[in-house]
Amino acid sequence: MRDDFEQRREQPRDRRSRPTDGEPRPLPLGDKCNYLCPYFRCNKRALMIQTRYVKGNPQKVGFCRWVGDTCITGECQYAYCEKRALLPGNKCAFAINRNNGGDDVERDLKQDELYEDDKVKEIISKKFGKRDLDLI
């Protein structure tokens, strides 16, 4: 019998990054990352989940032992996501894909490619003079 590591290694990389039925679900707050998410990690291992009582109701709060204050989640330089879903601006890729159906990310990539093509044409035209760029 093969162990879990060998089975996981044989899967395609994109399939490994998505949660399956047996794995815990990500817990973003809106489109922001959440320190209560099972995939959120602190590189300093300073994250401690505390239960604080506010008006008699228990609430889980992330506490950073390194700084001595509440966790600032994805804005911290030591925060990362096991599934590599933590995007700049403290956004969660799982939340963005769930809200938009994945179309927004693909559309942004296509716009970036078009922008890069225009930029390349501009550089070539400057280098070789104003020639016909329709041939490129």
Outline the low-pLDDT stretches: none
As a percent range, the share of strand residues is 15-25%
Major sheet: arrangement of strands? 2-3-4
The DSSP helix count reads 4
Helix content: 25-40%
Domain count: 2
Give the overall average pLDDT.
Answer: 76
**What is the total tally of β strands?**
7
Spatial separation of the terminal alpha carbons: 55 Å
Q: What class, by secondary structure content?
A: alpha+beta
Q: In this structure, how is the largest beta sheet organized?
A: 3 strands, antiparallel
Query: Per the principal axes of the C-alpha atoms, what is the gross shape?
Result: elongated
| Rg, alpha carbons | 22 Å
Give, in order, the helices and strands.
HHEEEEEEEHH
Description:
This protein is α+β, with helices and mostly antiparallel strands and 136 residues long. The chain is built from 4 helices and 7 strands. It starts with a helix and ends in an 8-residue tail after the last helix.
Give the tags.
alpha+beta; 136 residues; two-stranded antiparallel sheet; three-stranded antiparallel sheet; 34% helix; elongated
Short description:
Residues 1-24 have a biased composition (Basic and acidic residues). This protein has helices spanning 4-10, 13-17, 93-100, 103-128; strands spanning 40-42, 47-54, 57-64, 69-70, 79-81, 86-87, 91-92.
List the helices and strands and how they pair.
Blueprint: H1 4-10, H2 13-17, E1 40-42, E2 47-54, E3 57-64, E4 69-70, E5 79-81, E6 86-87, E7 91-92, H3 93-100, H4 103-128
Antiparallel strand pairs: 1-5, 2-3, 3-4, 6-7
